[in-house]
Amino acid sequence: MIQGSILAIAGVITKIIGAVYRVPLVMIVGEEGMGYYGVAFSIYAVALMLTSYSLPLAVSKLVSARIATGQYRNAYRVFKGAFTFALASGGFAAILIFFGADFIASDIMSMPMSAYALRVLAPCILIVALLGVLRGFFQGNGTMVPTAISQVLEQIVNAVASVAGAYFLFQLGRNIGETRGDHSYGPAYAAAGGTVGTIAGAFFGLLFIVIIFYAYMKIYRRRIRRDRTRKTERYKRIYKILFITIAPVILSATVSNISDFVDNAMFSNIMSAQGYTNKEYASLLGTLSGQYATMINVPLSVSTALGASLIPSLVATVQTGNRKQIHQKITAVTRFNMIIAIPCAVGFLVLAKPILDLVFFTQDNTTAALMLQLGALSVVFFCLAAVNTSVLQGLDDMMTPVKNSAIALVIHIVSLFLMLVVFEWNIYAVVLSKIVFAGALCILNAHALRERIGYVQEQRRTFVIPGIAAVIMGVVALVIHLLFELFAGEKIAAVVAILAAIITYGVSLVLLGGITEDEMLDIPKGKKLVSICKKLHLIRGEYN
Question: How far is CA 320 from CA 65, 140, 245, 387, 450, in A?
Answer without folding.
Answer: 11, 17, 20, 22, 20
